[in-house]
Amino acid sequence: xxxxFGIPLQALMGQLLLGLVNGSFYALLSLGLAVIFxxxxxxxxxxxxxxxxxxxxxxxxxxxxxxxxxxxxxLSPLIIGALGIAIERLLLKRLYKLDPVYGLLLTFGLxxxxxxxxxxxxxxxxxxxxxxxxxQGATDIGFMILPNYRAWVVVASLVVCFATWFVIExxxxxxTLRAATENAALVQAFGxxxxxxxMFTYGAGAALAALAGVLAAPVIQVNPLMGSxxxxxxxxxxVIGGMGSILxxxxxxLLLGLVEGLTRVFYPEASNVVVFVIMIVVLILRPAGLFGKAA
Length: 295
Hints:
By secondary structure, this protein is mainly α. It contains eleven helices and four strands. It has helices spanning 9-40, 47-65, 69-90, 100-122, 148-170, 172-182, 184-189, 194-216, 226-241, 246-266, 274-285; strands spanning 3-4, 7-8, 138-140, 145-147. The model has no long low-confidence stretch (mean pLDDT 88).
């Protein structure tokens, strides 16, 4: 078996694949955070809870209604997106003129409530969700065995991430959204319903989190703590990429997943903190983040 730096190539590529899968989740989750912060100015601490509810949505659809993975891939984000719209209309819209810390505290409280409800109903042991039949098994690509579902997670995440980037950065709708964040009154004067734009933007961010949850359900056990375990790392990804930077969140999420995977190979003890070490270095050298713009 060939080796690289004294490490079997198959083991190294396996860790890189695991890092790429984790990076795909980081990218998808940080993308939703970046969309909400960049366009609404809200630090959405409920994002991890929305991710968790997306995974539970897929599990509940299967266990109680017999609705499988492929339908859940659309239904669960749709349901959680609608919940996000309700949160924005009923709660968040009252805070836009206040200090951003109020939005942070509100969403943090919502996250704790959601986690508490699901812990009370389902405990913390976790629920298994099977890989869909079409994606079971693995493919031998020569230097490693590639699990089909993990390959699907990476491809699906990349497609969704760059489609979202394209819509926001390269289309008329995206231009209108960005203009509304700069000068809502002026955009409203041109006949655009800014509150509706804001409402659907938050709903879209919530749906992205739920989509990541559905993709994660067959990889890890579905449990109420899965969001809180991941959200701190995802916030670090957003800070490193640049708060509000769509492209920064995508690229940084993928790269940090790979760095984390390599760290597990060469220095496993540091794998849980390497992202935060990088965040500290970036904040010292470039406080606005790698892709962010200085205020």
